[in-house]
Specification:
The chain is an alpha/beta fold. The protein has a single domain (4-246), classed as Alpha-Beta Complex (Spore Coat Polysaccharide Biosynthesis Protein SpsA, Chain A), CATH 3.90.550.10. The protein has helices at 30-39, 53-61, 76-86, 107-115, 134-138, 170-176, 188-197, 201-206, 210-215, 236-246, and strands spanning 4-10, 24-25, 28-29, 46-50, 65-68, 94-98, 124-130, 144-147, 153-157, 178-187, 220-224. Strands 1, 4, 5, 6, 7, 8, 9, 10 and 11 form a nine-stranded mixed β-sheet that branches.
């Protein structure tokens, strides 16, 4: 069994949904639901990483381990990098980055993502699913990934990739792409290298931090999610949907 830990980065500020981690879902703050999903996995430990005292207080009340971080981080990966240094984790330790707005992420997928790093040729692991519709393919909020024949990422984009030269080829293009899910597994040494490198031009353009890894020549292994990953929460409408799923 793969040995891994889960870190849940959580910040209070959110442009579309202020105070998102503490928004209530079925009588519990969203961050507690995320924590429970992580605890259902095979992780040896689960840590909530935050710079906000309100989130830390709520997390401690439901029994979570909390690591306080600085408020300067630009991404969840940067926040997790501080955690691994504070806790002095070894470079070979596998960490799963479980986003703090994924209250319905199945534990099976957390385990699946971590297990992909059993192949030491992969630097980072993540999951994806088939594109559900033309609308999703063209939606910039649905991140697309295309992979090579070995299941390694070639590129991630908010754009509709690969480009269909004719309308007749659009179906082929949709089949070639996958819907990327924002869950990652990496070894601590890889994460340290990522953060030390700083943002790449590709990352800055698309606002997708995984493109930094590709710019550095890292291998990102992409597997098809073993089950439907559930609904992430970015808006009030998402909150209503998830509340129904978890009630």
């Amino acid at each position: 069994m793969t040995d891994f830990v889960v870190v849940i980065p959580a910040r209070y500020a959110s442009v579309r949904l202020p105070g998102k981690p503490l928004r209530m879902i079925a009588g519990k703050p969203m961050i507690e639901h995320v924590f429970r999903r992580a605890m259902e996995s095979n992780a040896s430990s689960v840590v909530i990483a935050t710079d906000d005292d309100r989130i830390a207080k709520a997390a401690e009340e439901f029994g979570a381990t909390v690591c306080m971080t600085g408020d300067h981080h630009r991404s969840g990966s940067e926040r997790i990098a501080e955690v691994i240094d504070v806790l002095n984790w070894d470079d070979d330790q596998i960490v799963v980055n479980l986003q703090g707005d994924e209250p319905t992420m199945p534990a099976q997928l957390i385990n699946q993502c971590a297990s992909l790093l059993d192949d030491h040729q992969a630097d980072i692991a993540t999951l994806a699913s088939p594109i559900a519709s033309v609308e999703d393919f063209e939606n910039p909020n649905v991140v697309k990934v295309i992979v090579d024949d070995n299941g390694n990422a070639i590129y991630f984009s908010r754009a509709a990739i690969p480009f269909a030269r004719t309308d007749e080829l659009k179906t082929t293009a949709i089949k070639a792409a996958q819907h990327h899910h924002g869950i990652y597994a990496y070894r601590c040494g890889v994460l340290r290298r990522l953060v030390d490198a700083g943002p790449s031009a590709l990352e800055a353009s698309e606002q997708l931090e995984q493109l930094r890894a590709l710019s550095l020549g890292m291998t990102i292994r992409v597997a098809q999610a073993a089950q439907q990953p559930g609904t992430g929460v970015d808006t009030e409408d998402d909150l209503v949907v998830v509340s129904t799923q978890l009630s």
